[in-house]
Write a structure and sequence with these properties.
The complex is a heterodimer of chains A (156) and B (378). Chain A has 156 residues and is of the alpha/beta class. Helices cover 38% and strands 15% of the residues of chain A. In chain A, strands 2-1-3-4-5 form a five-stranded parallel sheet, sandwiched between helices. Chain B is built from nine helices and 13 strands. Classes of the chains: A alpha/beta (156), B alpha/beta (378).
């Protein structure tokens, strides 16, 4: 049975991408992972534009793992666009970044991030962080209902 | 830094301007003449003046009106103005001049030596102010750069280390049957190096954050702060027997967050270096030296050789073997940064195996005029 819950991983560093996928695999998290390598790609995927034109937008990711420092459009700008759009404003977004700067945490939460996780350098710790994120956001957390507008009314 | 200072002289009579320019020639400033208020306003747009000397009596716009208009323009708001007036003015007229923004009032006929000397004083003030502005600008630029640098370090320098550590771990796991003990040992060393470097980067960021943090001065009790830190240290290693002797009511003036970080690093230092003592003692107190309040943290730990005291507060400097006392050598550098941000000094006395005492002062307020003070001094 296809698990409908998917992850959008927004990550420009191929090493971090490979390590994240490895950690997910090691913890038997077999959900689909869509990778966007910069902010533009992420927004194209989420809004069905550019190369993702015509994509079924009901198929939204269950959670977005968002790096902050990205080429073209950075993570905070992506978050701003996601929160500003009716279709994605409730989408769970976890900032997953190297930065431990207060400035980034404050901006991230101000813009409506659901969580902020700093990527540890040690792979054991990183892998454990990925496991917990997968468990929490794919299993424990109840995502917002799909296809509902701001009044909770059906939009389709 | 060299630039020509300019003086604006305004008088409706050519012979007065001529005489004045001659008087001012010794100051070596560039003299710009204007023969009316309007003329002066036009000149003030073209030039940056260090000083203006205005004749009071002029047809049309008089000196006071001109001064008021100059005050109203942002470019000339702080331009010092000297009024020149003929005969004996009434007191009320002199007051009017000062109200219009005069810094001085000189009655004609003036003494050339005195006028020239006064003008030189204002030129010197102007030069110092320009230099101060320039330094402030450089400082702000340096701070911005530091901030951008720290931000980039935080984002970019850790990522490659995660790759080094992560793929080493992947090799250890996925190719374990192809690796012998030596191969595994090498990979573990690679990983340890990457993780150590990540720790060092975090330490450097901590240090730079201290430099950038905004401070809020308030009166606080160092003893109370220290007691809380001591309790935490005790909880972290409950098996250790350490006598804390912390006087309460050690009042100090400073930023609570920063002083907390400083004290924690000092006490943690004492805690670490008394690690081999059966009966460890750590003391926080205050004393007076040459009329100055001097705070101190004393321990009966491993101490150090005073020959190396100059290195004590350097970043990543260590005076002990890592095997005996592990650490990165950032703690005391952090303490020093905290103390210097309060305008204070820090120094230490110690004997090998005879304990160490760290002294510091916190003059605080005077050194940080731009910082807010939430309480006034008692």
């Amino acid at each position: 049975m296809k698990n409908e819950k998917s992850i959008l991983l927004v990550e420009d560093n191929p090493d971090d991408e490979a390590l994240t996928l490895r950690a997910l695999r090691q913890h038997n998290i077999a959900n689909e992972v869509v990778v966007a390598r910069n902010g533009v790609e992420a927004l194209d995927y989420l809004f069905g534009t550019g190369p993702h034109e015509g994509r079924d937008l009901d198929d939204t990711p269950t959670v977005v793992l968002l790096d902050l420092k990205l080429p073209k459009i950075d993570g905070l700008e992506v978050l701003e666009c996601v929160r500003a759009d009716e279709r994605t404003k409730r989408l769970p977004v976890v900032i997953l970044t190297s930065s431990g700067e207060d400035e980034d945490k404050i901006r991230g939460y101000e813009l409506g991030a659901n969580s902020y996780v700093r990527k540890p350098v040690s792979f054991e710790e990183f892998s454990e962080a990925v496991r917990q994120l997968g468990l929490y956001w794919l299993v424990l957390n109840e995502p917002p209902p799909k296809g509902r507008g701001k009044d909770g009314k059906e939009t389709t | 830094m060299s630039y020509a200072q300019k003086i604006l002289i305004v008088d409706d009579r050519g012979e007065n301007l001529f005489a004045l320019e001659k008087t001012l020639s010794e100051t070596r400033a560039e003299i710009i003449q204007a023969t009316s208020g309007n003329d002066a306003l036009a000149r003030s747009l073209e030039h940056d003046f260090a000083l203006a000397i205005l004749d009071v009596r002029m047809p049309g716009m008089d000196g006071y009106e001109l001064a008021e208009l100059l005050r109203g323009e942002s470019k000339t708001r702080h331009l010092p103005i000297i009024f020149l007036t003929a005969e004996n003015p009434e007191d009320s007229e002199i007051f009017k001049g000062y109200e219009a923004g005069a810094v001085d009032y000189i009655v004609k006929p003036y003494n050339r030596v005195i006028l020239s000397a006064k003008v030189s004083v204002f030129l010197r003030l102007d030069r110092q102010q320009q230099e101060l502005h320039e330094q402030q600008r450089l400082l702000e630029a340096a701070n911005k750069e530091l901030e951008a640098f720290a931000y980039s370090v935080s984002h970019d320098l850790r990522a490659p280390l995660r790759g080094i550590d992560g793929f080493s771990k992947a090799l250890l796991e996925d190719y374990q049957d192809k690796l012998d003990d030596t191969g595994r040992d090498y990979l573990n060393r690679v990983r340890a190096g990457a993780q150590r470097m990540a720790g060092l980067i975090d330490d450097l960021l901590k240090l730079s954050r201290l430099t950038r943090a905004e401070m809020q001065h308030q009166r606080l009790d160092l003893g109370e702060l220290a007691q809380r830190i001591a309790d935490e240290l005790q909880r972290s290693e409950p098996e250790r027997q350490v006598d804390f002797n912390i006087s309460l009511g050690i009042s100090a003036q400073g930023d609570r967050a920063l002083l907390g970080i400083g004290l924690e690093n000092l006490l943690r230092n004492a805690w670490k270096f008394t690690g081999h003592r059966k009966h460890a003692r750590i003391e926080l107190g205050v004393t007076e030296q040459a009329g100055e309040r001097v705070y101190f943290v004393r321990d009966n730990g491993a101490g150090f050789d005073m020959a190396y005291v100059d290195k004590l507060f350097g970043v990543f400097q260590r005076l002990h073997d890592a095997a005996d006392f592990p650490g990165s050598g950032i703690g005391l550098a952090i303490v020093k940064r905290v103390v210097s941000r309060h305008g204070g000094r820090i120094w230490a006395e110690a004997k090998v195996d005879g304990g160490a005492t760290f002294y510091f002062t916190l003059p605080g307020v005077g050194s940080a005029l731009s910082d807010n003070r939430s309480e006034s001094e008692e």
